[in-house]
Design a protein that fits this description.
Chain lengths: 440, 450
């Protein structure tokens, strides 16, 4: 009770203690914001791969035929929810007068693609269509239709980093020309495809929005591989059922693929083994590792600088101890042990740590959740656009608070506050009442 | 004199002041290290962009390009401020390497290598023909075909230390390059005849500009070949961009103003010519503005980092505040005596501000020396970590096109850091100093207070 009374009294009388609480709060909030923004960025980065390719990607070293049969077999595995074949190529898209863009072309089945990747949600016009995504060009049902990523058609505004959706929608229905090709017997065979824009794709991920054009898979394989028998694909994208173990499922998928490639395609074991079967997250793992490394470095740098908070707490508590020597002497003369005097200050430091961390966590939460609004305010007030999708991939700053990191930071902050009070607490414990309380 | 003696005495005798010095040193150390690395990266990136672009650019973003570029080049060459001028074709192309099933959609740049090397740092980016740029497009594989210079990231890969596996001679890599030829009005030039132009080129050299996006997406072709591929070789020839380099003594601003005024008069001259409308879209930009979108991102990151350090640096202000406050509260008798012998309020304030200045100065000195020593060894430490633990703490050199960690301290940046640290100490000491100045000797020196 005495300790509690003294803490309250020091807090009331020594306003400088609030300074240490403020410093702890500042540091905790800063670290929580940095850790949360980084981990949210990494998580959205990984999710963007799943959004683009599904959970698992099967990519052989060369294109292969009879892919519908492979998909049928894959879907027989309980752990596979859906799968779809993709034909990919590179090309040049002529969008209008003097407007040519280098693009990545994907031949897809929109219905299946939507099941595997949630592709339909990214279509500006058809995202809520109950009939599913379709390549039918509005007003021109006889034309070959295709989807074009928003970044191919226009650039985001320099100041706001937002696309002009109204202008883009007006381009739906327009006829455009795509040039792509295949290499056969060391000869490049050029293919020209004219198609109407059926819809525009906006995923919010710059890399995906920058350069993709989607065409019906049959149309693309007919143009690219007119002499090939059977339906061709370069890649199979797979969505796994919820809660299945990745390793076991990958092994099952590899088994199905080996059997298919051996019996249906008559491929050699070498070619079969050259096939990449990986989760979309694994494909991103090198970059994720680098991002995590950068996060750790940043946290380390701020962690080192934040050691000054420990010094601040030492100074403030040292000051309190020096100013309250008479209190300490009286407590000791009443029979309190050095340990309990020490405990008063260490526990007080603990309370400062808890109060500062709580405030810091709260502030960190508010800042992280509202980081997009803050960024927008900075743009309006200072004219400085800090976040650009062309630099940081996503159109919005990922703003999920990482509570695991927040907890670690809070615990470290409390520990640091306790460490900061140790020296002053020891000095207080060593106070001799006879020296402090003597008359002269 | 007494101010210096007393402030040094307080600094040496009061051990609590050591904590303030330590806090300042810690902050200065980290800020010096981080800012040196960041400033090094940013200035290196800027230099590479400057080398890639030259000093000034006259051009248009439209792939149609603009006419009469040859006349303007001649006009520029008559100016005595100009060191080099290079007209360039820029477009997108579909590239198919022989022996693979891959197609790549990439950027092409049509250049005259000698001219381009005079206007930019292109010649220095080559590996095989660095000493004789005129032979940049010479290849030995097929004498009937033209050569091409390929961005290094497209042909070679980096090892874990960021080194490229250079070949002794360019391999016989053939590329089929296809472009959309466009008319001066921007329409497709070959409607009904295949729509695209295709030509084969052989790999003659690689270019390492140090700009990852350029090195990973650019192929350089002979100017005339690129002009034909893009349909810019009609009766009125077109180009997309003119790169300009000024003579060494010419200031960038002066040169830029001169080129802009030349361009205005040139445009007026050609106003009644055919395709004069294309000249309206042409802009004159300094190299910095031309590459603004790439450079701005790095500069913003540096600014954000500075703001974050400033926030964290607030704790140093708090520490100095607490320490000065403590010293003043313990030295009230000194203050009383000083004031009773006639020292003014301002001088008492100055005495404790000198103390804060000393804290800032000493902390900055220790932090700077520590930061400097750390930076001197930073690459060695990183190398040692990699050799011992296979751990690269900053960048995986196989992924990031960054060489050594920049470790040259920028004196301007260092000056700003030291001044900020001293300023922070003075700011932290201001309130306690004011209190000290307000103390009345009659109160502090009365017997009951002694």
């Amino acid at each position: 009770m005495l300790k509690f009374f003294l803490w309250l009294r020091y807090l009331r009388k020594k306003k400088i203690v609030f300074l240490s609480i403020a410093a702890v709060a500042l540091v905790v909030s800063l670290l929580i914001v940095v850790a949360s923004l980084f981990t949210a960025f990494i998580s959205v980065f990984e999710q963007s791969a799943v959004k683009a390719m599904g959970d698992v990607v099967l990519e052989p070293p060369m294109r292969f035929a009879k892919y519908p049969l492979l998909i049928e077999r894959l879907e027989q595995i309980g752990a596979v929810e859906a799968a779809t074949g993709v034909v990919s190529a590179q090309g040049l898209l002529h969008l209008g007068k003097g407007n040519v863009r280098a693009v990545s072309v994907r031949g897809i089945e929109p219905g299946r693609q939507a099941k595997v990747t949630g592709f339909q949600e990214s279509l500006i016009k058809q995202s809520k269509s109950l009939g599913g995504a379709s390549f039918e060009v509005p007003g021109f049902p006889e034309r070959v239709g295709g989807f074009v990523s928003i970044g191919v058609m226009t650039k985001p505004d320099e100041k706001t980093d937002e696309y002009d959706f109204a202008a883009v929608e007006k381009m739906i229905g327009r006829q455009v020309v795509l040039t792509t090709g295949t290499v056969s017997k060391e000869q490049f065979r050029r293919k020209v495809i004219q198609f109407g824009i059926a819809d525009v794709v906006f995923t919010g991920v710059y890399e995906l929005d920058k350069s993709f054009v989607y065409l019906p898979i049959e149309e693309l394989q007919k143009k690219l591989y007119p002499d090939e028998d059977g339906q061709m694909a370069n890649q199979v994208q797979i969505k796994l059922a919820n809660g299945v173990g990745t390793d076991a499922t990958l092994a099952q998928i590899r088994g199905v693929w080996s059997d298919f490639a051996d019996k249906q395609l008559k491929w050699s074991p070498y070619l079969i083994n050259q096939t990449t079967i990986m989760t979309a997250k694994e494909l991103q793992s090198r970059y994720v590792t680098e991002l995590r490394k950068q996060m750790r470095i940043l946290l380390f740098i701020f962690g080192v600088v934040d050691c000054s908070v420990v010094l601040l707490i030492i100074c403030i508590f040292y000051m309190i101890v020096r100013l309250k020597q008479r209190d300490i002497a009286i407590i000791k003369s009443c029979g309190a042990t050095s340990g309990s005097v020490c405990y008063i200050f260490v526990a007080f430091g603990f309370c400062v740590g808890i109060a500062g961390s709580f405030l810091g966590a709260l502030f960190g939460y508010v800042v992280t959740r509202n980081i997009n609004t803050i960024e927008e305010c900075i743009r309006i007030v200072f004219g400085l656009k800090l976040w650009k999708s062309s630099v940081y991939m996503f159109s919005k700053i990922p703003n999920e608070v990482n509570w695991a990191w927040a907890l670690v930071i809070v615990l470290i902050a409390i520990g640091a506050a306790v460490v900061g009070t140790l020296i002053p607490a020891i000095i207080a414990a060593r106070t001799k009442p006879v020296e402090i309380l003597r008359y002269e | 004199m007494y101010k210096i003696i007393l402030s040094i005495r307080y600094l040496v005798k009061r051990r609590i002041a050591y904590f303030a010095v330590l806090a300042v040193a810690l902050c200065v150390f980290i800020v010096v290290v981080v800012m040196t690395v960041m400033t090094g990266l940013v200035s290196d990136f800027k230099q590479k962009n400057h080398r890639f672009v030259g000093d000034c650019v006259v051009g248009t973003e439209s792939l149609v390009g603009f006419a009469y570029y040859e006349d303007f080049v001649k006009k520029l060459e008559q100016e005595d401020i100009i060191e080099g001028v290079s007209a360039v074709i820029k477009s997108y192309a579909l590239v198919s390497p022989f022996g693979t099933e891959r197609n790549l959609g990439i950027e092409i740049m049509g250049i005259e290598p000698v001219r381009h090397s005079r206007a930019t740092g292109f010649g220095q980016t080559l590996y095989h023909h660095k000493d004789d740029v005129s032979r940049a497009f010479e290849q030995t594989y097929d004498p009937n075909q033209a050569g091409c210079v390929i961005g290094i990231e497209l042909v070679l890969s980096r090892d874990s230390e960021g080194r490229y596996g250079y070949d002794s001679d360019p391999t016989g890599l053939g590329l089929a390059i296809s472009c959309f030829p466009l008319t001066a009005k921007g329409a497709l030039a070959k409607v009904g005849a295949g729509l695209v132009n295709t030509k084969t080129f052989y790999y003659s050299d690689n270019s390492h500009s140090g700009l990852a996006r350029v090195d990973g997406s650019m192929i350089y072709l002979p100017f005339e070949e690129a002009q034909i591929l893009c349909g810019m070789d009609g009766p009125v020839k077109r180009a997309n961009v003119i790169h300009i380099k000024f003579k060494p003594k010419v200031k960038l601003e002066t040169g830029y103003e001169r080129v802009a005024s030349l361009w205005r008069s040139f445009r007026e001259e050609k106003a009644d010519h055919r395709h004069a409308d294309l000249l309206e879209k042409v802009t004159v930009q300094s190299w910095g503005n031309y590459r603004r979108s790439s450079i701005a991102a790095m500069e913003k990151e540096q600014t954000m980092m500075t703001v974050m350090f400033a926030l964290v640096g607030l704790t140093t202000v708090f520490i100095v505040f607490v320490v000065t406050y403590m010293i003043i509260s313990h030295k009230s008798k000194d203050i009383g005596i000083l004031k009773s012998i006639g020292v003014s309020n301002a001088n008492v304030m100055l005495l404790f501000l000198s103390f804060a200045f000393l804290v800032g100065f000493l902390g900055s000195a220790i932090g700077t020396v520590g930061g400097w020593r750390f930076l001197v060894h930073i690459n060695g430490i990183e190398k040692w970590l990699y050799e011992k633990f296979e751990y690269q703490p900053l960048w995986d050199r196989e992924i990031f096109a960054i060489g050594d960690i920049p470790n040259t301290i920028d004196l301007k940046v260092l000056g700003v850091i030291i001044l900020s640290a001293i300023g922070a100490c003075l700011a932290g000491a201001l309130l306690p100093c004011r209190q000290a100045a307000k103390q009345k000797p009659v109160e502090t020196l009365q017997v009951s207070q002694l």
